[in-house]
Amino acid sequence: MKKMITKEGFDFSNAKRGPVIPDTGNKERITIRIDADILGWFRGCVEQAGGGNYQSMMNDALREYVEKHREPLEETLRRVIREELRATGRRASRSVGV
User: Fold this and answer.
1) Paired strand residues for 11
2) Nearest alpha carbon to residue 58 among 81, 83, 76, 41
3) What is the pTM of this model?
4) CA angle in degrees (0–180, nearest 5) for 76-80-83
5) Which of 25-33's residues contact partners 24+ apart within 8 Å by CB, and which partners?
6) For residues 72 and 45, what is the distance between their CA atoms, to the nearest angstrom?
7) Cα(10)–Cα(27) distance, integer angstroms
8) Each residue's pLDDT tens digit, 17-64
9) Cα angle for residues 85, 88, 89 (degrees, 5° grid)
């Protein structure tokens, strides 16, 4: 293999293509369209913080939203039971606590 030296003097003969940081496997690459003002806000926050990754910041914001709006299992069960009882025309028993 011959040496690949650029005019700047760097040797890329052992270089490998791909990301510098290996993929952890828990992220998925997608294409998404975001409003320019929203994207600008996240990029601005990263810039004000002195660096970082706006995509990670957006992911954290989405995760916080999902966790805040995730309905607890007990509430989900109560809601489903109420809906089913209404659909059948029955009333919930007080002993069930629905």
Assistant:
1) 5
2) 41
3) 0.52
4) 140
5) none
6) 32
7) 32
8) 776 777 777 888 899 999 999 999 999 999 999 989 999 999 999 999
9) 80
SS3 of 11, please? strand
Tokens of 45: 């926050």
pLDDT for residue 16? 79
- Helix (H), strand (E) at residue 73: helix 73-88
C-beta separation of 12 from 6 below 8 A:
yes
Average pLDDT, the chain: 83
Q: Which long-range contacts (CB under 8 A, 24 or more apart) does 79-87 make?
A: none
User: With the CA atoms of 13, 18, 21 and 23 taken in that order, what torsion angle do they form, in degrees rounded to the nearest 10?
Assistant: -140
H helix runs in 6-72, sequence order: 36-48, 54-69
Domain ranges of the chain: 36-88
